[in-house]
Design goal:
Largest sheet: 5 strands, antiparallel
Number of strands: 7
Distance between the termini: 91 Å
Structural class: alpha+beta
Helix content: 25-40%
Mean pLDDT: 88
Strand order of the largest sheet: 4-3-2-1-5
Strand content: 15-25%
Shape: globular
Number of helices: 5
Amino acid sequence: MMRENKMKQVAELLGVELGGQFMINGRQAIYELQKDGVYILDCQGRGVNSAQTFLDLLRGEAEIVKQPWKPKYREEYYFLNLFDDEVFSDIWEDHPTDTARYKLGNVFKTELEAEKNIEAYKKYMAQEPDISWRVKDDSTANTNSN
């Protein structure tokens, strides 16, 4: 007799989607919940099953930090064009343009979600950029050459 896989219910309990990526508070890795467990993903998206992480989550010893939705390869997504307040769609190709939109928070699962975020995104983009991370170039300092 075949038993029913309960991972869909576990995903609902944890507040994540099957196949959805998330982080865990205080840890640096990216994780993914699959039908057969929790995986720690490497930089190329390959996963290693982590039974201990799964147990930590179920026991409440680890806290999920949800990541923004990210399309899978060749999946349609929506983004905002702030010059004319329009919503456009594109296909995720892992192109630098896709990645830049994602890092700016300008990737949405539905057209309606994008439309609902136009004003909030305009406010976000109007903020002054934080460039405190930049290294100053002392070679351009004013020098006297006689």
